[in-house]
Write a structure and sequence with these properties.
- The protein is α+β, with helices and mostly antiparallel strands.
- It is built from 2 helices and 3 strands.
- It has a 3-stranded mixed β-sheet with strand order 1-2-3, with helices on one face.
- A hairpin with a 4-residue loop joins strand 2 and strand 3.
- The longest helix is centred in the first third of the chain and has 13 residues.
- The mean pLDDT is 90.
Amino acid sequence: MPRSLKKGPYVQDKLLKKVEVMNSSGEKKVIKTWSRRSTISPEFVGLTFAVHNGQKFIPIYVTENMVGHKLGEFAPTRTFRGHGGKLVERASSVKG
């Protein structure tokens, strides 16, 4: 269920302060964060965030298309290694 429109999008206060300081100073440093649930707002565009995925920090450069999404959407927590393996190879050789 999405968040109430009355409340507005959730952005961690500490993260928002870091972004405001970065925008006012004009620096382009990487902002390290554990807040995967924070919504990307228009102030974040052009900045790079290091989002923690449970193991390491994934660098994410924010563009206009990302506004409204969550930071965690761009830092996957699981590594996909493919379906099957030897079973898939055997099945394809039997058919062909």
